Amino acid sequence: MSLDAKTNFLEQFPLFECLSQEERIELAGMMKTEKRTRYSMVYMPGDPSDEIYFLAKGTIKIGTHSSDGKEVIKSLIHPLAMFGELGIIGEKERQDYAQVLRDEVILYSLKNDDFRQMMRKNFDLCSQVMSSFGQRLMRAENKLESLIFKDARTRIIDFIKDSVSDRGRRVGFEMLLKHSLTHQDIANITCTSRQTVTLVLNDLKKSDLIYFNRGKILVRDMAKLA
């Protein structure tokens, strides 16, 4: 992809609002464009943590497997977000995996050393990156509290509400969320089972609180969803 296209991408990326145009052009020149097909792996546990990624198109899931082989999805990455950033603060090898969901993705990769160099030159960028690590920690703490204090139904409903609030669009008085998740994916995110997810979604649909089909969830009334 051209240097102009990379620079335009950085202009849209909230993390890089603090950079000057010259700094964006410099950073764009160090970035590599990558296209990944559906369900392909961006990285696996044990791979070197020597690059950071910025997502331009598609969805990535970050996950791991428990000792009994069960998948646990830690987070979903959507466009204009970074991932694989733990190498910046000392991770040598990947502990998690990053996998493409249903649709092809376009992402940009950058060597950690190049990104650190830019952080040293721009204090505001360094501050933004540290803030993103803080937000990551808060999300992890919130998820842990949810597992301890909330039942499976509440966790599934909270996931729907959070996803719709973050990425849904209003359609009349309703909210529409387009996604690339299976019921098993939602179960792996909420630490429930596929059967429980299906039961909860069908119950919400029967109560006319949501409508769903493959790739879409329509929330009738966010205030009543509980």
Any overview of this molecule?
- By secondary structure, the protein is α+β, with helices and mostly antiparallel strands.
- It folds into 2 domains: 3-148, Jelly Rolls (Sandwich), CATH 2.60.120.10; 150-219, Arc Repressor Mutant, subunit A (Orthogonal Bundle), CATH 1.10.10.
- It is built from 7 helices and 12 strands.
- The protein has helices at 3-12, 21-30, 112-121, 123-149, 152-167, 183-190, 194-206; strands at residues 32-36, 41-43, 51-57, 60-65, 71-77, 81-83, 97-100, 105-111, 169-171, 174-178, 210-213, 216-219.
- The strands form 3 sheets. The protein has a 4-stranded antiparallel sheet with strand order 1-8-3-6. A 4-stranded antiparallel sheet has the order 2-7-4-5. Strands 9-10-12-11 form a 4-stranded antiparallel sheet.
- A hairpin with a 2-residue loop joins β11 (210-213) and β12.
- α3 (112-121) packs across α4 (123-149).
- The chain starts with a helix and ends in a 7-residue tail after the last strand.
- The mean pLDDT is 94.
Distance between the ends: 45 Å
The biggest sheet amounts to: 4 strands, antiparallel
Write the CATH homologous superfamily of the largest domain: Jelly Rolls
Strand order of the largest sheet: 1-8-3-6
Structural class: alpha+beta
Average pLDDT for all residues? 94
Number of strands: 12
Task: Describe the secondary structure blueprint for this structure.
Blueprint (H helix, E strand, L loop, with lengths): L2 H10 L8 H10 L1 E5 L4 E3 L7 E7 L2 E6 L5 E7 L3 E3 L13 E4 L4 E7 H10 L1 H27 L2 H16 L1 E3 L2 E5 L4 H8 L3 H13 L3 E4 L2 E4 L7
Antiparallel strand pairs: 1-8, 2-7, 3-6, 3-8, 4-5, 4-7, 9-10, 10-12, 11-12
Helix pairs in contact: 1-2, 3-4, 5-6, 6-7
